[in-house]
Amino acid sequence: MEKRVMTDSKRRRGLMAASALLGGVLVLSGCSGGDDKGGSSAQSSKKSQAEVDEAAAKDTSKARIAITPKGGADNVSINRGTKVTVTEGKLTEVTMTSTAGDKVAGTIAADGKSWKPDAQLERSTTYKISATAADSEGREAHENGSFTTVSPDNSFIGNFTPDDGSKVGVGMPVSINFDKPITDKAAVQKGITVTSTSGQEVVGHWFSPQRLDFRPQEYWKGGSTVTMKLELDGVEGAEGIYGVQDKTVTFTVGRNQVSTVDAKSKTMTVTQDGKTVKTIPISAGAPDNPTYNGQMVISEKFKETRMNGATVGFTDDDGKGEYDIKDVPHAMRLSTSGTFIHGNYWGDDSIFGKANTSHGCVGLNDAKGANDPNQPGAWFFNNSLVGDVVIVQNSPDKTIKPDNGLNGWNMDWAQWKAGSAV
């Protein structure tokens, strides 16, 4: 019994020793082997990543490109809203295209720090920009963006007269017709300036929410230069409706020519710089259709044009025009409603200076075909500018309304200034 106990005891001690030895080996294997192999691998991996990061940092360009407007923007200006700039580098290439694939010409500044389009963009168009720049070590940076310009529905423009670079008469106002009604007239008018080298005060007058004219108190000084600046880009003319124009227009004023039509004596006296240069017999409106009185400005000139009474309300019982002349010579428009001063080849020579026979126009003797320079109609046409003033007096009709054509001179200065929004 005792011997068996001793044997069991020895066996247990042996098993414990073996177990401890195996445990120690396993622990040793687990710790030593795991630490040596696993620890060495992790350290190697971290070191390798650090080296990669350091190398990548050294290889990254310092150039920072900024594209304006921000990607995804809409209702962007078609004028000054687009540019690319760079810091700590210089632009090497900028490409701008529309979604249709049309390239937009642009210029990188001489210092390489910026780029902008060369011309106005199109409305309601999506553009993409791709830019590349390099830092002082030649390392490249890239940036891309896209945006959409303002749509016609969300913008307004002003169609104006006279044209840039034109030469006009002393009565020519600056007249702007907007394609949408303007509710914030003050904001829009503040975005437009009209100045003259003559030093004359120039004031704007709103005839309607869509028409704004500018003029001085008296006619422009002959020989002066007038400049209009449209700085309407981004100006909110009505709720959600923005201007897109950024433009400077310059025109010159010719000699001071004013022609006075006396409907009673049936003559027209032409003066230049205050001196009478010609007196011409005329035929004004007949008693049933007299010519408007007042100061009228020549707004258009046509060597020949068609005049159909139906277009201005003169019709017969069948609804046809009371007259339809397809080759009226030397016609110059005086009103929107259809008043002209023009050559007349169909009337007898005896009516000029003797009888008023027209439907409201002022007629001068002329030849069919508009090719005889010796005719009064030809002389007046050749010696007139758009913007010259024709004054009609002593007619039984009323004075023409200031907004019927470019005829704001029929409003006194106080009334004119009262129509300004600023």
From TrEMBL:
InterPro entries: Big_10, LD-transpeptidase, LD_TPept_cat_dom, Transpep_catalytic_dom. Transmembrane segments: none annotated. It comes from the Bacteria. The active site is at H342 (proton donor/acceptor), C361 (nucleophile). One of its GO terms (cellular component) is extracellular region. Coiled coil: none annotated. This is L,D-TPase catalytic domain-containing protein. Residues 33-61, 133-156 are annotated as: Disordered. Residues 257-393 form the L,D-TPase catalytic domain. Keywords: Acyltransferase, Cell membrane, Cell shape, Cell wall biogenesis/degradation, Lipoprotein, Membrane, Palmitate, Peptidoglycan synthesis, Signal, Transferase.
